[in-house]
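Section 5: illustrative case.
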């Protein structure tokens, strides 16, 4: 299972990334791009 957390500089950049990349194909795999929910991304 591949996944990543990416932190954008602004909310507008994050929204644009979701709009442009969600449900697109990359290296033969379908991308699922969404905003993080509160508490979803924590340092480990």
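Designed sequence:
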């Amino acid at each position: 299972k591949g996944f990543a957390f990416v932190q954008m500089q602004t909310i507008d950049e994050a929204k644009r990334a979701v709009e442009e990349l969600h449900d697109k194909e990359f290296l033969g795999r379908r991308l699922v791009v969404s905003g993080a929910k509160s508490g979803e991304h924590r340092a480990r």
